[in-house]
Amino acid sequence: MLRWISKVAIVTATIAAIYIYFYKSTEVPAGYYVDSNSIALNAQCLSLLGTDEYGASYPLLIKSFGDYKPPLYTYAASLLFELFPPDVFTLRIFSMIMGLLAIAISLLFLRINFHSRENLNHGFYYLIFFVLFLFSPWVFATQRIPYEVTLTFFFLSILFSATFYVLKDPSNLVAGVIMGVSVGLLPHTYHSTKFSYLVHFPFLIISVLPSGKAQFFNLVTSRGFWVGLLICAVLSTPLALELLTEGNSLARFNVLGGRASISEFINAYFTHLNPEFLFFSGDTEIRHHSQYRGMLNLFFLPLLCCGVLFGVRKVISSRNSFLMYAICMFFLSFVPPSIKIESIPHALRANTALFPILFFSFYGMVEIISLLKAYLKHYPAIIFVLIAAWSLFGIRESKRSVTFYFTTFAHYNSFFWTYIKPDPAWDRDDNKVTPLDHSFGTVNERYYRLLKRNDLSYCNDQ
After folding, report:
1. pLDDT at 102 over 70
2. Is 308 in contact with 330 (CB distance < 8 Å)?
3. Do 128 and 221 belong to one domain?
4. Strand, helix or coil at 259?
5. Residues 142/172, Cβ–Cβ less than 8 Å
6. 61 to 74, 95, 147: CA distances (angstroms)
7. Are 376 and 429 in the same domain?
8. Which of 15, 347, 370, 371 has the largest CB neighbor count within 10 A?
9. 204 and 143, same structural domain?
């Protein structure tokens, strides 16, 4: 009877958390930035005519206003617009769902592979972890932005899970296919993911080297490895050819601030890795944060530290290939946002760190619970519940907690963020913006005229 009540309570709490996650999704944040409208504009053009705003037929990169966005999010949005209302709110819900799925996939992967651990059989641990990660600003605040970056966490959760099974059994063809698809699509999601794409297979090989020659040859001669590599090559070849010819995929990199010197790079790297950014203050850019605490819930600070330390110890003692791969990806995920000195620290460009952080925080929780249970028996669950509640709703000097985001953030945010408010002149045809004007400042009007007035002239550059 008690076990049944426990399961009902866990399911009820999970449903409540998901409801709160989507709560006020039409109101908070109270508007959309021009990048989101640019994505919606191009997605609707692709949905209706198969062209972008410049009239290019199914382009490899979305030129937008000259930043050449990776295409996967925009193409996914064009498919959504075939089924749902073609507006930015549809994209916001889509982005939020992708964040929710990323955590669900990650915890399912961890549940399957840690289920045999007696110390983590209680579902409340998974519930606590799910709720606190879901309501970390790095997830619930950034996933409400309809940007291409919101696909990153989802694809990385699939990539890491598939990589685990490839390292566990290199002959696993299904895992190899999933790994190849996820890493091949990764550079089409966001600019900073190109680095993860480049280092994945080298790190895969490096991670098995400490295990000996037999493990190395077992990997590099396996079907899973080569099928994954082949699929990855097929999916990423068009982007590689574009990079070698036109080079537009580097446009966003080139328009940012100056390239960091070695000392600036080191400083930027440790600024991202700093607990101040991760757990206490977060990204200062209003669009990337919730304006309370750091990018992650404070609950994960001791878990992450313990997880990395225990992970390193296990790599040294047992030469665990996946842990070595995950450690490499964790520390190198802060390299892309540190190459440029503009807007440091930058949560969106460091988004590739999300899965490694989730993994090592969970791994740390497993190890901490195993230590506590040796002395406290059944009390670790109670301790974790109390700490979780304090970290979620407790207040600091700023007098803000998670409730601030849903109650005050929209008004507070309005002073810093340019919201999208239709101009009455956009409903008249006199003096309308020309379709040849693809500038940053005209995106909102062009978006409005296409999606609200069905003016297809903004899809053919005429």
Report:
1. yes
2. yes
3. yes
4. strand
5. no
6. 10, 20, 15
7. no
8. 347
9. yes
Which structure tokens are listed for 457?
Answer: 């002239």
Residue 420 confidence class, pLDDT cut points 50, 70, 90: low
CA gap 381, 392 in Å, rounded: 16
Do 75 and 166 reside in the same domain of the chain?
no
- The residue segments making up the domain with residue 60 are 31-86+421-462
Structure tokens at 74: 């925009």
Q: What is the dihedral of CA 341, 346, 350, 351, to 10 degrees?
A: -150
Contact 126, 386 (CB under 8 A): no
187: in domain: yes
Residue 62's identity, in one-letter code, is: I
- Average pLDDT estimate for 264-284: 88
**What is the model's pLDDT at position 422?**
65
**pLDDT at residue 165 greater than cutoff 90:** yes
How many C-alpha atoms does 145 have within 13 Å on its Cβ side? 23
Name the maximum alpha-carbon separation found in the chain.
77
Specify the 3-state DSSP secondary structure of 69.
strand
Task: Examine residue 309 and state whether it is found in any structural domain, yes or no.
Answer: yes
| Cα–Cα dist 234/98, whole Å | 25
Cα 207 from Cα 38, distance rounded (Å): 41
Bond before 202 cis per omega within 30 degrees: no
Contact status, residue 192 vs residue 351, Cβ threshold 8 Å: yes
386 and 459 fall within a common domain:
no
Burial of 273 (0-12, 13-18, 19+ CB in 10 A): middle
Rounded distance, CA 47 to CA 409, Å?
A: 34
